Amino acid sequence: MQTTNAQVRRLMEELQKHGKVGLSAMRSGMSRNTGTKYKKLGKLPSELKKPRDWRTRPDPFAEDWPELESRLRDAPELEAKTLFEVLQERNPDRYEPGQLRTLQRRLKQWRAQEGPPKEVFFPQEHRPGEAMQTDFTWATSLAVTIVGEPFPHMLCHSVLPYSNWGWATICRSESLAAIKRGFQAALFRIGRVPKFHQTDNSTAATHDLASGKRGFNADYQALMDHFGIEPKTIQIGKKNQNGDVEALNGALKRRLDQHLQLRGSRDFESVEIYERWLGEVLEKTNRLRRKRMAEELAVMRPLVVERLVEYTEERVRVTSWSTIRVKHNTYSVPSRLKDEWVKVRLYEDSLQVLYGDKHQLTVERLIGRNGHSIDYRHIIWSLVRKPGAFARYRYREALFPSLTFRRSYDLIRAMTEERKADLEYLRILHLAASTMESDVEAALELLLEAGQTPSSDGVKALVAPEKTELPELEVQHVDLRGYDALLGEVGA
């Protein structure tokens, strides 16, 4: 059995106590001869090993290595897998797939000994109150749910690199509205203003990246001008220049995960409650950075301007389909607004539609492009009058509020021809818009469970309010002569 460093250290400790080699060797788990050997040498086993300068097996790439090395000098970025494929094509009988790992180790060793210089990163010294860095990071890995439903989201994370103080807000995309909300939340939290604000090259701040220019968006520049802050961005493809916030993104999510485990549940009643909980965790984290944070606050300018509104406005016209097109997505609006011009306020997570400065509706903002958000309540009255439009309506799937409605339509369609089925279903949908969708859905579930084909009359009978029976009251006859007698006594 090979003697270990730990055994020899134990041997030396025992020898210092009593000097008996035999007893020391026994207690160290080795023979007397071995103990005597290491006593004389005075070295650990690891110190006795000599570096091996010979190969234990023949080099399978010895014949082709000069060519490979020549290729690597011309193109150092070539990977072992690419070179191995070339060798296999040329000599299919000589090289086996299992030898790829050997070539990868050989290339790694060559690059370390003779390869081109690698890019070196230099740690930067941060100055108090000089900068704030902002970055977006996906928080889907936290597995947060809202009322049991998955909640995919991002965090807009702002950090002061000197103290590592940070603040984060919940967002759904890397939009200007999200960065405006998150950045302002951080500034008004500390009540101070740094010298400059640094972001990556997201389209929320910059544009025209294809030409290599990094000009700032007008709206983002206006945001920086409002607070008197100099905007900065990192070089394209140089994430390390935003390294502090990039590193703290991971630390933040690990801390949130730990607190979610302590909480015992990842489900929240609403997004507002979740964000309130997020703020509490951030407050606890920032308490650990009070000393360096005090240094930052001492040199930063006071925040003296008002908070900017966290939305942008667009003026759009309602189409004949009772929809509006905003940021490459389609939203339905009440049909009474058809052909009218409306004002749309774009928040990070929602849209507000106004007509004549009066609020008309608020709808969740869609992420991405070419999506649609259609509310059947906005168009059902026209569909009931034009049931033939239902069959090929572009957004037809949006007219099934739940699986129960879809199952009901499929059953109706199986029992009758298409036009009649469409009309019957639209009447049910009209009833849902006129009363309560939840009541209509419950009625449909009852009919499906009973094995009955849903119908508008059947659903109406189940959701109709119960008639209140008024009790019959007997009208009592009032004898007024008692009052006359009472008045006579008072007069006397």
Question: Topology of this protein?
Answer:
Blueprint lengths: L4 H14 L2 H8 L3 H10 L3 H4 L16 H10 L5 H11 L9 H15 L16 E8 L6 E2 L2 E2 L3 E7 L4 E7 L4 H15 L1 E2 L2 E4 L18 H10 L2 E4 L9 H21 L3 E2 L2 H17 L2 H10 L1 E2 L9 E6 L5 E4 L2 E4 L8 E6 L3 E6 L2 E7 L7 E2 L6 H6 L17 H13 L2 H17 L2 H13 L6 H8 L17 H11 L1
What does this structure look like?
By secondary structure, the protein is α/β, with parallel strands linked by helices. It folds into five domains: 5-47; 65-114, no CATH class; 131-302, Nucleotidyltransferase, domain 5; 312-373, no CATH class; 377-463, no CATH class. The protein is built from 18 helices and 17 strands. The chain has helices at 5-18, 21-28, 32-41, 45-48, 65-74, 80-90, 100-114, 176-190, 218-227, 243-263, 271-287, 290-299, 380-385, 403-415, 418-434, 437-449, 456-463, 481-491; strands at 131-138, 145-146, 149-150, 154-160, 165-171, 192-193, 196-199, 230-233, 267-268, 301-302, 312-317, 323-326, 329-332, 341-346, 350-355, 358-364, 372-373. The chain has a five-stranded mixed β-sheet with strand order 5-4-1-7-8, with helices on both faces. α15 (418-434) crosses α16.
